[in-house]
What we know:
Layout: H1 9-18, E1 23-28, H2 34-42, E2 46-50, H3 58-70, E3 74-78, H4 85-90, E4 95-98, H5 104-114, H6 137-147, E5 149-154, H7 157-161, H8 163-167, E6 174-177, H9 179-185, H10 194-210, E7 214-218, H11 221-228, E8 234-239, H12 240-254, H13 256-260
Parallel strand pairs: 1-2, 1-8, 2-3, 3-4, 4-5, 5-6, 6-7, 7-8
Helix pairs in contact: 2-3
GO molecular function: aldehyde-lyase activity; metal ion binding
Family: Belongs to the HpcH/HpaI aldolase family.
Domain HpcH/HpaI aldolase/citrate lyase: 27-244
Amino acid sequence: MMDLPSPGPTDAFRRRFLSGQPLVGSFIKTPTVHATEILGDLGFDFVVIDEEHAPIDRGQTELILLAARAARTAAVVRVPDISRILGALDDGAAGVLVPHVASAARARAMVDACRYRGGRRGFSNSPRAGRYGGLGMWPHVDQQDAAVTAIAMIEDPEALTEIDEILATDGLDGIFIGRGDLAVAMSAAGPDAPPIQAGVEKICAAARNAGKPVCLMVGNAAEAQRYRELGASAFIVASDQAFMRKAAADALESFARVRSA
């Protein structure tokens, strides 16, 4: 038996993310496998399983991770808290998005939870990530430390003042800019309001200086291109719920004359 698995979506995602390759993903907010299979089949680079804002528990996440593997797309988990990182990684996630990383101390804590070497991740090679014991101790440690992507969510005003220190955290792979949370926290008119845009530009500049990739949620390709010019490289568009709602609304609208006849 080979001691190391062949590279798959989980292994490749971190390499692609760190290289700044443009990536397109979407949120998964329904606790079923089907949307992930569809998005993977269409060619989405990754999905983000939303445990923070959607009714998705660990058991459902595990099944969605299997669906992502079957569809050959990477699956990242947006965890509700640092305490959920271990379960997501043991179950085979390509990485995690960790909310409200507003300080270097929290960035250090999230990275520690993601890494074996230099961190504090609890060891077990018996879950899926270790091929149910198929990988030995150190091959499993090496594989996971090389593959797991640790992404901090910058979505608090306090993070703007400590962004350089956050980005300097050893082992932090990149950041996600939460424009919506920033807008609410700063009482701005919306995610495109001038104060938020100024914050995004500051964060992107700091990330460029630190050599760390940036991920954002965007509404369309034109918006993605605008942020691409600021240095962002990974883009999350909509969610399974949003895609379904838009398609359903368009279909219903097309029947307006039929329904009024």
